[in-house]
Prior knowledge:
Layout: E1 2-11, E2 14-24, E3 29-33, H1 40-48, E4 55-60, E5 63-65, H2 67-72, E6 76-79, H3 91-101, H4 107-120, H5 136-149, E7 154-158, H6 166-181, E8 185-190, H7 194-198, E9 202-207, E10 210-216, H8 217-222, H9 228-239
Parallel strand pairs: 3-8, 3-9, 6-7, 7-8
Antiparallel strand pairs: 1-2, 1-4, 4-5, 9-10
Amino acid sequence: MLSINKLHKKFHQKIILEHVSVTVARGHIALFLGESGVGKSTLLRILCGLETADGGSIALDGKETDLSWFHAQHKVGMVFQQFNLFDHLSVIQNVTIALERVQQKSFQEAHDIATQLLLQFGLVEQQHKMPAQLSGGQKQRVALARALALKPAIMCFDEPTSALDPQLFKQVVQTIETLATQNYMLLIASHDPRLVQSLDCTIYLMEKGHIIEYALSKEFQKNPFQFGQIKRFIEGHRLG
């Protein structure tokens, strides 16, 4: 279980996150909804070590951990909105590079792990292609394979369904659901209201660095009027 307690972040004098507390069990999905700039992506970036927190603590399986240790142990994998693949490396090299350089695995061991992941995501035939030769959906799967190669306990997704057509959206949802069955702790930052209806998750609506309302997706679907702020956010985005 991941426990985030009173996480705080500000940039200059602007508060980005203010005492955000969340618990995510293994096999569960936390969906952070909100407009751009409300802090949801910053929360994921702090977990991944790309931003530093100004306060708060994180515990994993009941043990409070220092964030530097958390990152050094590669407990968190991240799939970025723009994928952040290395354009000068082939698909398989994008997956093996961290295995070889970070975990000091041999070329053959890294290659074997990468091949297995590419097989899992239907990318073996693309393994020698460059990122520029891939579709958006293929790039996303390469980014996911790269993140999973280091065997994290937690997976973060930043806007994973942004601008996707219905077929690709369905594929992404299926992938996230499969990871949940494999006992990953999953955190998603998004403004896509379709995810509320598609995922069995806990919804956290964020505004100005705060979680202003939360609900289990099943409870929200049964009685959306009980969660007025989430309901208004979703209706606003559907109209948009």
